[in-house]
## 1
Amino acid sequence: MKNKNKNNLPIELSIESIAFEGVALARKDGVVHFVRRAIPEEIVLAKVTKKRKRYLECEVMEVLKSSPNRVLPKCKHFGVCGGCSWQHLDYPEQLKWKERTVLETLKHLGKITPEIINNIIPSEPVYNYRNKMEFSFGPSRWLTTKEIDSGEKIVQKDFALGLHIPERFDKVLDISECPIAPEISIKILDRIRAQALMFGCKAYNTATHEGFLRNVVIRNSLSYQETMCILITDNPKETCDEDFLKWFETEFVEEFKDTSIIHAVNTSFSPVAIGIPKLLNGKTHLIEEILGIKYKISPFSFFQTNSYQLNPFVSKIIRIAELETSNTVWDLYCGTGSISLPIARKINKIIGLELSESSIEDAKENAKLNEIDNVDFFSFDLHSKEFWSFASELPKPDAIILDPPRSGSHENLLKLLKSVSPAKLVYVSCNPATLARDCQFLSDNFYLKEIQAIDMFPQTYHVETIALLLNKEK
């Protein structure tokens, strides 16, 4: 790409649309510019932050002409923290662009247009909706531009408790507010941060594997209004570490006595927020409900993060699937059974399959808890060639539901779906791009009948999609 702006001077851009991963798009001199924190119909002054072979990445310096859809972000960390990249966009516009992203991605990447397009289901509420927040300790606090430019002495550079900076996993932004988290979260963070600093504890360094404090995970049950706090540390190495743990096990527990409190130890080099848990107060798990089904949520188990949307989300899957009481269904990537168990009460048999052994154990416990006996759960690598042999021994399904991770399904599994050839597939996706790719791969055997977008992640560009694919021969 020929560089016509060798001195990297600010450039004026007219924003046309929103593109990949929620970033605004502009064109100038035939070159595509991706502009963070801009909105369609705006004219902005931007600076180039990265030069790619086919496009430029930019940051807004000044909004010269503001869109009527621009709103004041609720969080003071907006623009630095990567958690909520759309807080500046009016919520109805968020919904419009999420829906448009799904449809355009299916059209351009998958070469597919669904027969039925349902209106996106909005979230209520749009703040304080997350039932799980994972915060990290860091030995290198992210310094904001405002802080650096202030000229004031910078203190506490080697300790932070908050969220990682986008594309900089080594840097953590100290968080003093988070409007998408449960309201108790910041109170808990503030207490833990203050005491850690007072005792002089060190944050764990993922590069050198030194330090003590690793993560704070906060989970919340909407159905029962209960909270769980999990502190994850390495083994104590210094006196200050032991003193901090004594405070956490006594004074912190007393202050938050209505909260389930767990201390987990992680001595591995893995940055994943997990560890061997020890209950200090309350319960070992939370209980959440979906359509009258109770779910045990253990400290580190996966569960959809927006409890407010769970009932409409699962209800829509059931409605789109249009299952009959005599049906047998496979639920692939079933997790802890959040889709399997409500469906089990409406059909003859459901089989849940998932790689994670801990999730399968939770799913089995949830089935027992709800006295549901027409469901079988198995732990298996769905992407492996060996799964073909295992699947051949299972009852033939009338329908298959799959809810893969963001990376989508594996080609081995997609080939199996073609071979098994059920009457219908219900594909649940959190990534329009991999949904489009997989639907296109299946298009020789299945056609896309219906699409339903649902907003599980307000203030972000992420969107959940339910797709109904029908067998062309049935």
## 2
Amino acid sequence: MIGSRLLLAAVSFAVLAACSDNKPAAPAAETAAVAPKPSDDPAWPVAAVADPTTLGFTAEGLAALDARFAKAVVDQDYAGIVTLLAKGGEVAQFNAYGVQSGDPKTGAPMTKDSIFRIYSMTKPITGIALMQLHEQGKWQLDDPVTKYAPELANLKVLTFKDGKPVMKGGKPVLADSSRPATMREIMSHTAGFGYGLGGDDPVNTAFRDQKVLLSKNLDEMMTKIAGIPLIYDPGTRWSYSVSVDIQGYLVQKIAGQKFGDYLKANIFTPLGMNETAFILPEDKAARFANIYTWDKATNALKVTEDPPFTRYDAANEMESGGGGLVSTAHDYARFSQMLLNKGTLAGKTIVKPESIALMAQNQIGDLGIYSDGTAANPGRPGQKFGLDFAVYTDPEAGQNPFGKGTFYWSGAAGTIFWIDPVNDIFFVGLVQQMGGSRPDAINFRNDSGKLILDALKPAAAAAPAAPAKELEPAH
């Protein structure tokens, strides 16, 4: 009986299987592989694609962009420039113009692998490092910074009358701050700290007098900062400050690892940014661009000395999260593509998409970005500040030539980058110029933005009107 039942069951199963239209699922091993991307190769980017018009640009528009940068060198706006434009993960333009070092007209030519002081373009890298630790649950945005840096407790704050610090007996009249700054405020320049790059108020003067940015290391820097009052009560004003150097210290303390070592292990090595560092090796010195300045007396560019707040020799222990790195177009392009990819590159997740979203959205509410780090200005319509990035929240309001949500920053020597998620574009522009430019010189960020968005074929463009002149952030 049992044998008959088994035979009947087997026959029934065979009939059902034969009558079924369903095909068995393919084994997991046969699942289609993800197509490789050019940026999966750590050598990327090397050169532009053979036909950049396939990326949605017009040949005429890209030619106009190239001509504008070439003209900027001929006009002595800059001695030399390296630019890299990418869209959709492919390189549309990667060029070097002019002179890297020596005489601004006849010196060593600029190359695509020249090395630059990126100054404040260090800041977004520091921010990414801190957000990695945020993802690990090691801190929260609204935690007081004193939870991780207790030396910043009980800071005093300047008092003001008629827009000027109140002084008595040659000293500022101070008040207790209402509360410690939060981590969010530390990352959005609303914590109230000074910087020392400009301003004649008592706080910025103290930063210069105590050589905060020339500290031996991050620990010494924090000791100095803890003894200097705030300019503004936390959360009340946007004020460009030393707060990103504080972030570097926080990464070091929370991670329990030297800041530079943390960056190398968790950002530079995974992204293939092998020439981004706080120290410039001697064997790379020949590729290190000079800094130039505009000499009003001769109406010409000339080589100038490095500012005192940065050094790149092997003895340097002050790893400035606010402005201490050197880098190349290749390396910063890989960092930028990671940002455009919402945190990943070459199969490696550096941060989650949620972290990029937090960093690239307004974190300062109704406050305005009213300073370039050295002087007040009337504000930047349509712009806000996220976490270590400025953001174009309403490009049309300021007649800025970018897609809504474009985020950016720049460096004291004129380096720039911007990320336009709407158009799937990033741009990196590297120069080395400080202390003034030729009258009517190129506005590097806005001119690049207008020309690039104009170069998009009509169906792809997502940008508003002509650019407004704006000041470049310092350091």
